[in-house]
């Protein structure tokens, strides 16, 4: 699926360490509390970690792309889970 104005990871990657809006189709997050309730949040802010797994050899057992997305809280994502990104607006 195409997202107007969103940048595909196939076209360009963010700068290493850059915080961006990420499109994560089907992303489900747990709501506060211990009820187990979830909510779909397909757009989240994350920091791009270029070559994360190459720079952190202690992270063994993963054979996918070397990049990673660092989220806020427990929202880290593997590179293949994110499809598109946008720079955060300057304020």
Fold and architecture overview:
By secondary structure, this protein is mainly β. It has one domain. It has one helix and eight strands. A six-stranded antiparallel sheet has the order 1-8-2-5-6-7, with no helix packed on it. It has a two-stranded antiparallel sheet with strand order 3-4. 16% of the residues are buried.
Can you tell me the number of structural domains? 1
Radius of gyration: 14 Å
Q: Share of helix among residues?
A: under 10%
In spatial order, strands of the major sheet run 1-8-2-5-6-7
- Report strand %: 25-35%
Query: What string, H for helix and E for strand, traces the elements in order?
Result: EEEEEHEEE
How many β strands by DSSP?
8
Number of helices: 1
Mean pLDDT across every amino acid position: 82
Secondary structure layout plus pairing:
Blueprint: E1 7-8, E2 19-23, E3 28-30, E4 38-40, E5 43-49, H1 52-55, E6 68-70, E7 77-78, E8 84-87
Antiparallel strand pairs: 1-8, 2-5, 2-8, 3-4, 5-6, 6-7
